[in-house]
């Protein structure tokens, strides 16, 4: 027969015993006598096989560690709380609150810096400048003497019936609050009269004694006072044809002018600010200053 049959043997020590193949008929090596039928034989051929391998395991290998729980209660508590705990929530709230406070502080600081930089003029200053006056002790005082520390400048006159006393009372509170927060000597408080005809050094000294001992009063001639009011963009007006000894009022701007230790204008504080608000503004500017402050 020309067909082949494959018979698989049993496995023995991990080897398949044999595969027996029946090949086509092969002729004999020596010829047979005439008249006899040629004898054909089928020789079995044995092929050794490779060692059989066990099929790969169907179990998948995971890189994620499996959680082992000792009790069912632990497993229930884990799935009930989820991936977050009260400690993680508290840490999240504290971190978020700290970031909010930091961004609010930076926003306020950048706004103060923007105001201070916008107020600085290029070349000639927008507010402030050179002046030469005398203090309430009669000593010379110029713009150079105002440098080295922050200065809070107010323009008024001693015969003012209501507005100036109210603003100077507020200025006294501001001085104490700033001193409490920033320490003594961080700010100089200056009162400049708009009425030099009546406000002599002695009159200014007696007037300021009713408010705060840290206030320094400045006065001078008409031309000197007019020049400093012009430099600080302060409007003031006295009635014409005033006779000696006659009482009169002076119309003027009502602002506090904050100047930095270099003599540059920082910010104007108006009547809409309370003493506490104004002191907070001043203290924040002092805290933002990177240079040296003369606290003498």
Blueprint of the fold:
Layout: E1 7-8, E2 11-12, E3 15-16, E4 19-22, E5 44-46, H1 72-81, H2 86-119, E6 132-135, E7 140-142, E8 150-156, H3 163-182, E9 187-193, H4 201-208, E10 215-219, H5 222-231, E11 236-237, E12 251-252, E13 256-259, E14 265-269, H6 275-288
Parallel strand pairs: 8-9, 9-10
Antiparallel strand pairs: 1-4, 2-3, 4-5, 6-7, 6-10, 8-13, 11-12, 13-14
| Main sheet summary | 7 strands, mixed
Share of helical residues: 25-40%
Strand numbers in spatial order across the main sheet: 7-6-10-9-8-13-14
Query: Are there runs of 5+ residues with pLDDT below 50, and where?
Result: 1-30
Describe the model.
Helix 3 crosses helix 6. The strands form four sheets. A seven-stranded mixed sheet has the order 7-6-10-9-8-13-14. The chain has a three-stranded antiparallel sheet with strand order 1-4-5, with no helix packed on it. It has a two-stranded antiparallel sheet with strand order 2-3. The protein is of the alpha+beta class and 296 residues long. It has helices at 72-81, 86-119, 163-182, 201-208, 222-231, 275-288, and strands at 7-8, 11-12, 15-16, 19-22, 44-46, 132-135, 140-142, 150-156, 187-193, 215-219, 236-237, 251-252, 256-259, 265-269.
Overview features:
3-stranded antiparallel beta sheet; alpha+beta; single chain; 296 residues; 6 helices; 7-stranded mixed beta sheet; disordered N terminus
Structure in a nutshell:
By secondary structure, this protein is an alpha+beta fold. 32% of the residues lie in helices and 18% in strands.
């Amino acid at each position: 027969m020309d067909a082949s049959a494959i018979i698989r043997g049993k496995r023995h020590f991990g080897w398949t015993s044999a595969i027996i193949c029946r090949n086509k008929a092969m002729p004999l090596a020596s010829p047979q006598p005439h008249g006899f039928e040629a004898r054909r034989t089928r020789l079995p051929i044995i092929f050794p096989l490779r060692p059989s391998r066990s099929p790969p395991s169907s179990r998948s290998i995971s890189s994620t560690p499996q959680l082992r729980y000792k009790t069912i209660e632990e497993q229930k508590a884990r799935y009930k709380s989820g991936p977050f705990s009260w400690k993680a929530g508290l840490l999240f709230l504290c971190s978020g609150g700290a970031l909010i406070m930091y961004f609010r502080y930076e926003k306020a600081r950048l706004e103060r810096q923007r105001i201070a930089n916008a107020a600085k003029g290029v070349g000639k200053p927008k507010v402030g400048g050179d002046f030469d006056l005398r203090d309430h002790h009669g000593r010379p005082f110029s713009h150079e003497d105002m440098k080295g520390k922050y200065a809070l400048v107010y323009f008024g006159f001693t015969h003012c019936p209501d507005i100036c006393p109210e603003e100077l009372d507020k200025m006294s509170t501001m001085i104490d609050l700033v001193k409490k927060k920033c320490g003594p000597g961080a700010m100089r408080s200056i009162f400049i009269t708009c009425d030099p005809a009546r406000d002599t050094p002695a009159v200014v000294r007696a007037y300021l004694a009713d408010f705060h001992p840290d206030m320094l009063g400045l006065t001078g001639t008409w031309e000197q006072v007019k020049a400093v009011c012009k430099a600080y963009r302060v409007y003031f007006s006295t009635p014409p044809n005033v006779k000696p000894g006659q009482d009169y009022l002076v119309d003027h701007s009502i602002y506090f002018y904050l100047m930095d230790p270099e003599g540059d204008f920082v910010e104007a504080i108006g009547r809409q600010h309370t003493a506490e608000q104004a002191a907070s503004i001043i203290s924040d500017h002092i805290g933002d200053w990177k240079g040296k402050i003369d606290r003498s």
